[in-house]
Write a structure and sequence with these properties.
Cytochrome Bc1 Complex, Chain D, domain 2, mainly alpha, 247 residues
Length: 247
């Protein structure tokens, strides 16, 4: 009996050891000498861009949900201060958030400057040598009525009558789209196009007939006029007096 009791005690001890070892070996459980990883301050452009920008602007700035930052036209019209302000403070009324610590983000001033310098290295000024570039920001007053004619001339062949979409491209007058892009964003897209989507820049809509600064400004005014107060919200019309509801 004593021998059987000893064997049983040994079996129970081995089971307990195996159970303990099994728990200690579970995936994700740190070992007894696992190193403690510390998050350091990132200083390389490639890592900063990958962590903060690539999800929207694409790998190597080639574009995605947002514009291509490596586009030569964009970098020809956007100054370092434009890039810096956009990264640091975001762009109000758009999905572009603020990344600077001073605005609630995670990047310090030097990291923002590193991103600006790295993006600037993607510029290819030789591709636009001798080309008169439209200004980044509008200097002129836009006229939506003139913009309607500009749209017909330069945009309707792809985006359809009234901006409602065509066989080559989607709607640019949709209120939900316009709620996500600023006037400056519209102007930037008109100037630089979206080459990855087959949309030409301001020189290519009508062969041999670049858009003028005034025409760019006017068509942006026309597009902006399509914004509504509550995009995407199908509010019912108020009931007529005496037809339901309370007085």
């Amino acid at each position: 009996m004593r021998r059987r009791g000893a064997i049983l005690a040994l079996a129970l001890a081995l089971a307990a050891m195996l159970a303990t070892a099994g728990c200690n070996g579970l995936p994700g459980r740190p070992g007894p000498v696992s190193p403690v990883l510390e998050t350091g301050r990132e200083t390389s452009f490639s890592a900063l861009y990958s962590q903060n920008c690539a999800a929207c602007h694409g790998e190597e700035g080639r574009g995605g949900a947002a514009i291509a930052l490596a586009d030569p036209v964009y970098l020809a019209i956007a100054s370092d201060s434009v890039l810096s302000n956009a990264i640091a403070s975001g762009i109000a009324g758009t999905p572009m958030p603020a990344f600077a610590q001073s605005a609630g983000g995670t990047l310090d001033r030097q990291q923002v400057d590193t991103l600006v310098a790295g993006i600037r290295r993607w510029a290819r000024p030789s591709e636009l040598a001798g080309v008169k570039m439209p200004p980044y920001a509008a200097d002129l007053k836009g006229d939506p009525q003139r913009g309607a004619d500009v749209y017909k001339t330069f945009c309707s062949s792809c985006h359809g009558p009234g901006g409602q979409g065509g066989t080559k491209a989607g709607s640019v007058a949709d209120p939900s789209f316009l709620a996500l892009v600023s006037d400056q964003g519209l102007r930037t897209i008109v100037i630089m196009g979206r080459p990855s989507l087959g949309a030409p820049d301001w020189r290519g809509d009508v062969p041999g007939r670049p858009m003028t600064d005034q025409e760019i400004t006017d068509v942006v005014s026309w597009l902006a006029a399509h914004r509504v107060a509550y995009p995407g919200q199908p509010y019912p019309a108020p009931a007529a007096s005496g037809e339901g509801g309370t007085e």
